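Appendix B, example 12.
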Amino acid sequence: MAEGTEKLLSVVLVSYRDPSLTLRRAVRSVQEQSYRHFELILVDANEEGDPYSLGLREDMALFPRVRLLACPCPGGALADAKNCGARAARGEYLAFLLARFAWNPVCAEMQIACLEEHPEVGMTFCSAWRQEEDALSESYRRPPQESDEAAGGAAVFDAPASGSVSQVLFRRSVFEELDGFDRRIRRDDHDLWLRVLKRYRILSVDRDLVCRYVERSTLRRSHRVIDVVGYLQLYSKHKELYDKNPQAKLALFEKIAACYRAAHSVPDWLRFAAKVRLLRWRLSGSAAHAAAVLPPPGEPGQTGRTPEDLPLRLFGCRRADADRLWREGGEEIARLRRELEQVRAQRRREREETARRRQEQADRELELAGRESKAVLAQAGREAAAIRAEGKRRAQLEREQAREETIACKQELLELLVSAQRQRGARS
C-alpha cells in the first residue's frame, strides 16, 4: 500500500512507573515501524507530581511529535488511561502499547494488512516472546519468527495467545461500538477480546511481533492467586460464551486450579480440580459418543439404536460409558479426598513437630538460662565472700594498728610521768 493511501493508525502508549530508558525504547519501537502513517499518543498514568511523571515529561521533550495526555491511575489499573488515549485517537485503526513492551518493526504493517484483506475482521492479534529486562536491549528488532501458538478466533480464549493489549490491533469503530475497556473487570483487556469475539471475527498473525521485557523474578513466576479474581470475573461475565466453548472453559479452570495450587489453597484447588476432571470426561465422552453411537454413513443394519445407545446429556456418551465414567469419577473423588486427608495429616504432623521442636528449644533455653543464673549467683556469692573476707582482714589490720598506737601512747605517757617525778625529786 502506498504511503499516501495508508489509513491512519493511532498508537496509544501507556506509561505507569516506567524507567526513562524503558519508555524511550517503547517510543523508538513505534517510530521504527515500516507502516509510516501513524500518530503516537502517550498517556501518563502516574499520579501528579510523581517522580516518574516528571521524568516522563523531560523525556518527551526529545520526541516533539508525540502527543502527551495525563490520566492518573492509582494502583496501576490502566483501563481509564487506555480509554483516555482512545478518545483522543483520530486514526481508523487503533493499537495500544505498554511501555515495558516493544514492537517489531513490521508489527503494525502485518496486522493492518490482515484487517485490509478481511473487512469482516474486527481485531487482530499477534504473538509475543519474553525477554529478560535490559533497558539497552534491541532484541525487539529481530526478524519475525513463526509462533507455536494456535491461530484463529478460538485462540483468543487462551491468555498466552493474547496475553497483553500490546499484541492487539483494532478497528477504531469496533472499539468505540463496544465502549472500550471495562474498568470494573480486573482483566479488562481479556474481557474486551471476548466482547469483540461475540460480534466480529478475530484473526491471528502467527508471528512473534511483540517483545515483552520482564524482570528475572517474573520469568520464573507461573501463577498467582490474585489472578483468580480476574479469571472468575471473566467467567461470570461471559459464562454463556465459555459454556459454548468447553475447551476454553477447561483451559480457564485449569489456570484457576493452578493458581490455587501454587497458593497452597487445597480446598479451592480440589474444587476446581474436580471441575477440570469433569470437563475432561465430557470432552472425552463426546469423542467416544461420536465414534461409538453415530453409525458410519451407508452402513446397513445400523439405523436403529437401543435405549442403552442413547446419549446422555451429561456426558454426551452411551449409558454404559456414562456408568463407567461415573464409577471412575467416584474413584477419582475418593482419591482426591484421600489426598486431601493425607495433606491435612501431613500438615498436622508438621505443626505438631514444629510445636515439639519449639517446646524443646524453649526447654533448652530455660535450662541454659537456669544454669547461667546459677553460675552468676555462685560467682556473685564468691565475690561477696571475697569482699567480706577482705573487709574482715582490713578491720583486723585496723584493730591491730589501733592497739599498737594505744600501746605506744601509754609508753610515752609512762615515760612522761617518770620524767616528771625525777624532776620533782631533783628540785627537792
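The chain has a mean pLDDT of 81. Residues 319-427 form the longest helix (109 residues).
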